[in-house]
User: What shape does this take?
Amino acid sequence: MTKAILSLATLLLFFNFQTVSAYNPQDTEQVLYLSLSDAEQMAVERNNSLKGASYDVQAAQANKWVAISNMLPQLSATADYTDMLGYKMDLGQMKISMPANATLGLTASLAFNGAMVVNAKISEITAKMSDINLQKTELDIRSQAKQLYFSALVSEQIISLLGQNVESMSSLERMTAKSVEVGVSEQTAADQLTVQLATLKNSQASAERSLEMVYNTIKLLLDLDPSTQIVLTQPLSDILDEAAYMALMGEQFDITDNYDYQLLLQNTELSKQQLNAAKWAVSPTLSARYQYNYKHYFSDEARMNMTPPNMIGVTLSIPLFSSLGKLKTIQAAKYSYEKQLSTLNSTEKSILINYKQLCYNLTNAYENYCVQKDNLEVTQKVFNNIKAKYEQGLSSAMEMTTTSNSVISAQSCYMQSVLTLVEAQINLEKLLNK
Assistant: This one.
């Protein structure tokens, strides 16, 4: 019995929650009332990991436009002032003055090759991956909030049930102690109930500490002040929707809706474009430019101006030999792409198999939940019956202790089945992108 309760408390203590944000002191209300949807929304709005993913999306969008802008015309301006301090160019029989002058130049240029187009595609894929990762992070955070909310409700339910057991056992212990005083019952019967009551109180205290840890994790997830008191407004019975479980198990699975699969597809396309970029690295680069120069002399002396006001130029650059370096780069990119295709194929099969497994897990968890729910009701009825007989002196303290242990074990199994059911539901919802 004790092991059953402690195992459930341990389950609550070590439930697998990811650390999501650092504590940042801020003004909050002393009491925060939360529904399940409120907890999910607040977690999304205040989570630092999600903010970081949002910044990644903005950075990727900026980098995409950087790659695109490299294929667009570029315009630059220069300004120059030169003073040769009275120097005159000596051409033998004549000297040409070199007065101070200022030059203003404007240059418009355009360069293009296949690698630029591929780089723009790569930056676009990176932006898509950042956006998918943002959505995936939001889904993960909502799932964590939901899991924590259920864990807190289950912990509260455990404490409530243990409180009822403590109260019931305390009443029986007092009654047995009085019976011992008048010689109706033996001391061993009272001792058995005393030990049972102490065990129940210890289990109740352990569950309360587990609940405190769950609430602290919720505060960390929601970025709340540690002194904030959280009150959950939805009882467990209201959000354990059996119809929703049946509908979820009948949901059609479209693998393209899965964020992990979407990321893998984009990663495969990225590997393909990196191969194309390696191939286009040996392609010619065509560039064109137009330059306008205006030169002003700060003197009326005769002079020679060799600066043309207008100039255009076209350049075709063709790489010829790189000591097999670029060829090996293409081969490496090709192998990487083929490896990514193999990973995509195997992962697709793995996701489809995982979907079937998660459906099985949810079905099994739901069936076990129904069994444990019925078992708890039956065990409680048996306990009430034995308790009534014990009060009338028709059953022994040993029977009372054994039945009490059965009730506690049934309560523990029921609560654990709830946690397992919720975990199975959340895992399937994440795979279905719900």
Q: What stands out?
A: The CA atoms of residues 144 and 268 lie 29 Å apart. The first helix runs from residue 2 to 13.
